[in-house]
Amino acid sequence: MLVPIRVLVNGIGTIGKRVAHAVSLQPDMVLVGVSSPRPSLGVLSSLSRGGVLEGVPFYVRGASPSLFEERGVRVGGVLEDLLGSGRVDVVVDAAPGGEGLRNRDELYSRYGVRAVFQGGEPAAVAELTFSPFFNYGDAFGRRYVRVPSCNTTGILRVVSALSSLGELREVFVVIARRAADPADRKGARLNALSLDGGVPSHHASDVRTVLPWLNVFTVAVKVPTTLAHLHVARVRLGGRLSRGDVIEALESHRRIVVAGGEFEATPDLLEFFRDRRLRGDMYEVAVLEDSVHVDGEYATLSYVVHQEAVVIPENIDAVRAMFLGGDPEAGMEATDSSLGVTRGRLAPRRALVAARQS
Amino acid sequence: MLVPIRVLVNGIGTIGKRVAHAVSLQPDMVLVGVSSPRPSLGVLSSLSRGGVLEGVPFYVRGASPSLFEERGVRVGGVLEDLLGSGRVDVVVDAAPGGEGLRNRDELYSRYGVRAVFQGGEPAAVAELTFSPFFNYGDAFGRRYVRVPSCNTTGILRVVSALSSLGELREVFVVIARRAADPADRKGARLNALSLDGGVPSHHASDVRTVLPWLNVFTVAVKVPTTLAHLHVARVRLGGRLSRGDVIEALESHRRIVVAGGEFEATPDLLEFFRDRRLRGDMYEVAVLEDSVHVDGEYATLSYVVHQEAVVIPENIDAVRAMFLGGDPEAGMEATDSSLGVTRGRLAPRRALVAARQS
Amino acid sequence: MLVPIRVLVNGIGTIGKRVAHAVSLQPDMVLVGVSSPRPSLGVLSSLSRGGVLEGVPFYVRGASPSLFEERGVRVGGVLEDLLGSGRVDVVVDAAPGGEGLRNRDELYSRYGVRAVFQGGEPAAVAELTFSPFFNYGDAFGRRYVRVPSCNTTGILRVVSALSSLGELREVFVVIARRAADPADRKGARLNALSLDGGVPSHHASDVRTVLPWLNVFTVAVKVPTTLAHLHVARVRLGGRLSRGDVIEALESHRRIVVAGGEFEATPDLLEFFRDRRLRGDMYEVAVLEDSVHVDGEYATLSYVVHQEAVVIPENIDAVRAMFLGGDPEAGMEATDSSLGVTRGRLAPRRALVAARQS
Amino acid sequence: MLVPIRVLVNGIGTIGKRVAHAVSLQPDMVLVGVSSPRPSLGVLSSLSRGGVLEGVPFYVRGASPSLFEERGVRVGGVLEDLLGSGRVDVVVDAAPGGEGLRNRDELYSRYGVRAVFQGGEPAAVAELTFSPFFNYGDAFGRRYVRVPSCNTTGILRVVSALSSLGELREVFVVIARRAADPADRKGARLNALSLDGGVPSHHASDVRTVLPWLNVFTVAVKVPTTLAHLHVARVRLGGRLSRGDVIEALESHRRIVVAGGEFEATPDLLEFFRDRRLRGDMYEVAVLEDSVHVDGEYATLSYVVHQEAVVIPENIDAVRAMFLGGDPEAGMEATDSSLGVTRGRLAPRRALVAARQS
Hints:
- The structure is a homotetramer.
- Chain A contains 13 helices and 17 strands.
- By secondary structure, chain A is of the alpha/beta class.
- In chain A, the strands form two sheets. In chain A, strands 9, 10, 11, 12, 13, 14, 15, 16 and 17 form a nine-stranded mixed β-sheet that branches. In chain A, strands 4-3-2-1-5-6-8-7 form an eight-stranded parallel β-sheet, sandwiched between helices.
- In chain A, a hairpin with a 2-residue loop joins β15 (about 295) and β16.
- In chain A, α1 (about 15-25) packs across α11, α7 (about 150-165) crosses α8 (about 200-210) and α11 (about 310-325) packs across α12.
- The longest helix of chain A is centred in the middle third of the chain and has 14 residues, at about 150-165.
- The interface of B and D includes residues 185, 186, 187 and 224 of B.
């Protein structure tokens, strides 16, 4: 095997701790360490005794090591020293939105370390906004690559799946988005619905950083829930297709599962994954089978995006694509097999069940 | 003045108690009484001492009068006796969904009383599904008329407003719908998002009971909130129009208000009406000004529908149209002036404010 | 009649707009005007066209009058000018917590105007923390008086009612408190429970500003709801009493209602008041009848406190007591009859109902 | 090693799937199989491909095997056949409340199989309501044993810890209880607070099934959250103790953790365990350190009970105690080491941190 890619994860919140865990599962990567400005809940939960990242060296920046050590976190040294030592090939930056840009200028650029940024940063933070389904090869050799945020990632996967049926002429998505993550301290308005940002929401332009030619429009509604986003998409396909064609395209696409009618609501899906993955991570976009409707050139469908986990595979892909290039399918397969990402169906078709029951 | 229309309201829940109150405010109607099978919260809150319907005669059906009297409700007699007495011209039936159909066959048909039904009943319950904006005149002389439910009412008003700009070619609406009313006892799933019914949701076919030719598609998402529904509509207009045209069409339409950027979320709107109307009823559809976007032939907009109150004006219209016919505008104006229903803007344009502030 | 007390309300949020409305209903007071630093939702909803305070003069402070005028608010002048003119006897300060103290020093003290403060201010803001049940007479002639906040007001009323049965030896209250008001913009944690402040919570010491000798301990738990607080109190009475004694003491006490078993949850109570009072204000503390349990010397009971409205009567009392003194009962009765505050029972006793049904 | 205890788990919901998983981790037990009447979400999530119980034989009762097989569940046979075969020593019954009693009469009694029941069953279902801290030895040789429900389990642990300081004279607990589990389909009232059951709540009498002499009183308030219960307890200790004594007693007690001030709310605790255990199970009762207050003879404290997981260790203990008897500490230690149950502190003392920071 080749020399593994040496990765540091900077920012140990919802995304960072998951990326770090995922990196640690890659045979061709090594998790050199993690860093975060404060002993946040994410640091405490993942790095203290019994946590999934227990023992991973933590690198401090502008804070006292004892602040971390007394919480049971193993401190490896000072972040700047590590970055200057040449022992890090790439940082996955999962700092809160906007801090990544500053980190790039103050840290990564200064120490000549490459970086992957998250979708909370402006697209200009990087040379490329990355989607393994559309521009895997473009990432090779890049210094800075950005992985778009959860909702954009979800849209891109569905667009990729449906594009296998022909070029999409229009994509309109309404996003019912969770107002806060489960342990978010900043809070949200109780019992309230509101638009999230302007119209169109930023997701449309974010999709176009990857697919500039796509006719896409998005609106996001903030809803008082913590578990997941639910999208309703109306897509104008290149021609008349059957519902079966559409479902098959979705079922056979990487990182998409089709959830039968037994999965009625977001908690059903997340409960399913609680019984199989740490943190209940749902890496897959879960299409609600009962929602898939095709009339003429239009397909309507609804799917669930787990904001905490959906971008993790794409982050791992990005690292691999930047350093190793190669075949996109092979790269994604490496990610998916290491993380156990699935595709296909979660429950039997209703018709089938009904038939067998009678 | 003419002899007033003698109205009974059957079913004193969320809708029924509001219709009864609204009837009592009409100069050309008289509220003969109300009825309900059980001493529900709606009965107790509206008819007991101090309630908005205090003193209105209550007619029992298959229950002991004392059950109501001991709760401070004035009992006028037995429902069947009243209906048989010829002292009721029309019943507004606001019983729970499905019971209206049974009431029609067991009561109204038997005693030869005309009736207005709610949208929870199947369209077949009545000869006409009514919208004063589209078929006011058709209601005259009808025996049974149905007023569609809150979300359909909201869509019909917006369609009416936008149709003033030309024929609509496509209407696609995603409804983020409240999962339960504020005091609903049946409950809802906490912290969950799910589709409400199939795809398309029933609202599309319900709109077509009024506008059979309309190309309309709807999807409803159930969200854990009690206050109001929020719609996101994408409409293909007959031609290219400006954002100003669209806003003007909405602002000038009856029973629609355009809420400036200061109204960010559903509670802001409902709080506004708490300071001006009993129960905080928002009879108007409230378009979020910041949501109105026009690109080419497409207009996208978002609006709030208060499920408790939005159908009240249309119920009053229906009664009037059935008995008096006449000019739709005059009929609706009678309703709106009695209830204080408004149109236009709720807050100044942001640009204007900004200009004056600087 | 005497010359009316000239009142200005400063701060038009949840409490301020209600106090202003209540002042306007008093025969012995006149609402000279209101003020608020910003055109907040409270200003907009209550003072613009159709609002309950439409036409009341608004006095600006450090802001452009046009900011209010363009929202349909009638501007009467500048706050400082008004205060300096001698046309205001007392300000009810309902500014956000902490601002009242600053207002006292910068405005009321400087212009020699008396003031009533809210419980969000430290007790030291005033000469007296006021409860009409315990120290009505002490308020006469005071310059600054403070009305404690909603939960403390609720506890004081219940303590007053139970004290009629003998001296209370211990009072322990757990407050399940709403995390945000219905239209709160600051938000709260979704799906979360947490302690609110330390243990004991500040309510215990706040109660003791009125009743220094009382053995009282409180703990507050923040819960994701907007409608009301729910208290569970365990009280050690001076001797052995029956459940009937305790319920009678509660039922016969001013500003307390006993809600029968039909009122199961906070929304049931608030829905009841939506049908009888603007904004659905519940001025009364509502004891849940089924919760009242007496074992030996201990009484356990649970009651609902509507955080938006419960302090309004006490604010009105405070103004009257400061200026007119006199008999507490007469003063409170003036408040209660003007606002329609009730006492007694909301629904019949279950046993009674059951007996009659059988 | 001895012959392992052969265990079947009947009922694969929230509790059953966790007990089954826990049984599978015991060196002295073998999970013979599981059963459930329907292919519920719990069955699907835990037993289908990738689930934590994948491959465990499923035994059907009154349902077609294909209903399970087509969902990827491996069917081992018919439940009655298995029970009649002598290959099961004990059933842990985790059926919905009330069904356990029926299962006992229809199944376990008939086939002479011993059983452990959950707290949703009446105490009379079993010969003993079990707490390993109080009556471990009494379970040996019993046919039917009942493990009390989550809140009672939490109270019993805290009582056990505090009893180490002397006999408790009074225990009063207010339970802010979650209204529904995360994926509950039955729903709950949104935005509502209500009492759960009567006063006292059933928890007090349930505690007394274990500790008949204890002076305990409980009240439960239902709150719209899914994650966990939060208790506020006020305990009269046998004498005057210091806060340090109380915290030490809690910290050193099995299955209790003391969560420092960094853990502010229920989601903080559950997020911590998501990073270390499948399903984020928190087996421990988590005392909020900042809530611990001692004044004179009274200790007040607040703690979090994870309703999904807290009873799992006690279920495992019950099986072991029934069959092996022996030393309680050794029995519990076997459970705790297999499941990774901890005790002590979750985060450093604030004072300590402050000291080091300065």
